[in-house]
Fold cAMP-dependent protein kinase regulatory subunit.
Amino acid sequence: MSAYQTELDLFKNEVEQKLPGDFLQFAANYFTKRLEQQRTFIRNQESLALSKGIVLFPSTSKHDSVAASSASLSHGANTGAGVNAGLGASAADEDVLFKSPFVDRGPHSTHIVDHLEPTHAPSSVSGQAGRDDAPGLFKGNFNVGTESQRKVNSPVDPMAAAPTPQQHPRRSVVNPKPLPINFNAQRRTSVSGETLQPDHLDDWKPENFQEKTPEQVNRLEKAVGKNFLFNKLDSDSKKLVINSLEEKSIAQGEEIIKQGSEGDYFYIVEDGTVEFYVNNQKVNTSGPGSSFGELALMYNSPRAATVLAATDCILWALDRLTFRRILLGGSFKKRILYDDLLKNIPILKSLSTYDRAKLADALDTEYYEAGQTIIKEGDTGENFYFIEYGEADVLKKGKDVIAKLGKGDYFGEVALLNDLPRQATVTATTRTKVATLGKSGFQRLLGPVVDVLKLNDPTRSEH
Ligand SMILES: Nc1ncnc2c1ncn2[C@@H]1O[C@@H]2COP(=O)(O)O[C@H]2[C@H]1O
């Protein structure tokens, strides 16, 4: 069900961006292309593996091996054998296919292949575990301007390099296994295409499926109910997940995850406290109801942090395949939908993949038609905005249009930074889709880029 929903969401996104004149033709072209991509990908994965004498994700179940093939999109593309290789020549065709003669799509429109380019762009990943310390409260006012008008000073993404495996004296819960064919030590994949699972997996059942006792279900409902990931699942998916979770008792001091190792499980904390270390530095602590270990499973990347039990813990572990099959398309959908946008916004380049993913979790979508006002000069500022597509003018009383904004631009931060009323009006000039972030999310999640935001604040000189 979640694969179906993800496909629908991606399709909806395309329709909203392209506004096709001939909807049925557009839909036919779109799904034909998707089908080709998926089939080409699986064929290429199989022949690549065969040519190397490798059996992809050996499994007793035909479903598992197909799912694993689907899950290894990033590797296919890395080797030139993935979906982009299969459809690479069609980028121009795609443009013809999706072009509507009635709609000016503007300079920033994208193609569905954007969702399927896992190799060359930084990933936006996430973490549910732990609270990051709120990175400073902001003081400032309203800032506008296109990215090209803003000076961006982006430090290197600290997650871009493969983390150094840590040598902890504690016993590891996870036995190191040989890395799978799709393991990506570069950490530079996109999650998008990987989530698209073939339809015929709908009768799929997790390998570890084991009916839980009523007492366990009760406990799990309590533990899992606190985790936002599960609130978004339909009851069938929730049942599958609950019955696939394995209980693990971890003693204080034990290492649950080692930075740099391969990801095998996603964890939910029922009881106890866990600590996260990146390059031996403690970065986070989290407790009951939180979860961790999703990054490596989403991106086929090495574990981004070492996780230690700070107290005795009871954890519930979900295997990689069930995680990918159920949670990726459901609970982590926002990360998929915002992946493309966030990884292409220059001011966010300094965020780690973990931070960028948490940002995606906090975003909401709003739409504005041409002529509609998004924010009004003098109003109280509640939200910060990224433009997903569309165009908008920034107007100031007495000065008329002072800037033009387009895809990837941001606005609304000055009121939040400086606790001032909106310093200008922003009006959509074409149909515009924005991703919005509330004040508290802005303060909590954009700390690492606040200096860049302040640097770009056009009203700084007025203070
Ligand atoms: N600051 C952080 N950076 C990276 N990972 C973190 C951080 N805080 C918590 N984590 C979690 O630690 C997990 C380690 O394994 P993963 O990389 O699979 O997923 C990671 C996140 O869920």
Q: What stands out?
A: Confidence is low (pLDDT under 50) at residues 54-182, 192-201.
